[in-house]
Amino acid sequence: MECIIRPCRAEDCTEVMRMIRELAEFEKMPDQVQTSDQALREDGFANDPFYRCLVAEVAPDGQSRDGHTIVGYAIYFFTYSTWKGRNIYMEDLYVMPEFRGKGIGKKLMSKTAEIGLENQCTQLKFAVLDWNRAAIDFYQGKGAVDLTAAEGWHFFRFEGEPLEQLAQGQPGL
Amino acid sequence: MECIIRPCRAEDCTEVMRMIRELAEFEKMPDQVQTSDQALREDGFANDPFYRCLVAEVAPDGQSRDGHTIVGYAIYFFTYSTWKGRNIYMEDLYVMPEFRGKGIGKKLMSKTAEIGLENQCTQLKFAVLDWNRAAIDFYQGKGAVDLTAAEGWHFFRFEGEPLEQLAQGQPGL
């Protein structure tokens, strides 16, 4: 099966948004998806984009059962480690279930790593849910290190009201 | 004590690098610091900077015992959540020990949150070591959620040889 990996174009955002929802369903948190294909277009295709995206595309004769030719995607952006310098962060990596086992996920991740190295990044980072054993085995099989298990790093987040209060520096904080 | 929060300038990178090393010592991983003040200048003060930085500066008459007036810093950059849209990520937050308990860390974090909201970010994210109870209490007291504990997210990383192999898409992968 022929499958090319190429940069996402603005007109692909509807397809990427469809797969973002599929991935959130798989991750058992579909209610958390508050973005839209319009937001994706605005945030990824203006000056100073907030993210970059690769898509996996198959030929029309290899399309999915319901007619899709864009069958996977990777979302990434550049970040920074004050210890190791430039980093590339892979926010999402997804391949539609009927296209798995064909090396498409590997190709998307490989291209992301290549882009990282071209930009002098020393690390490729990402997050995985602890119950997603298949993904963890896949990544660890390629040499990834679980920094949460190895060093104890936990992700934290402010959003909504606590974020607003933080920004206002209220005396009550 | 007067203390202003202002954007880091290229000439402050030597002072920021000093504090990056102090923070890594505190985090018990001083050997991991492979950056330099020159790299900080190149990566933060060219076009498309990889990070942005705020510093906390005190007046000369309030300087540290060893003569420093830049006594804290926050490093941040913009990231993206395919579920929630624009994010701001706080990579480091540090205040020199002799200046703690004066609200400087809160000011740095508050300014970071303010910059996030100005840029339509819906989340402020960061990572904390699980044994750093004082930091966790500080953040949770302001409404931060531990996403690793609540949802099971683990940080993963490729670097060195595994990253190179990944980028080359070697058949052995």
From TrEMBL, chains A, B:
<feature type="domain" description="N-acetyltransferase">
    <location>
        <begin position="18"/>
        <end position="168"/>
    </location>
</feature>
<keyword id="KW-0808">Transferase</keyword>
<dbReference type="GO" id="GO:0008080">
    <property type="term" value="F:N-acetyltransferase activity"/>
</dbReference>
<protein>
    <submittedName>
        <fullName>Spermidine/spermine N1-acetyltransferase family member 2</fullName>
    </submittedName>
</protein>
<dbReference type="Pfam" id="PF00583">
    <property type="entry name" value="Acetyltransf_1"/>
</dbReference>
<dbReference type="InterPro" id="IPR000182">
    <property type="entry name" value="GNAT_dom"/>
</dbReference>
<comment type="similarity">
    <text>Belongs to the acetyltransferase family.</text>
</comment>
<dbReference type="InterPro" id="IPR016181">
    <property type="entry name" value="Acyl_CoA_acyltransferase"/>
</dbReference>
<dbReference type="GO" id="GO:0006595">
    <property type="term" value="P:polyamine metabolic process"/>
</dbReference>
<dbReference type="InterPro" id="IPR051016">
    <property type="entry name" value="Diverse_Substrate_AcTransf"/>
</dbReference>
<keyword id="KW-0012">Acyltransferase</keyword>
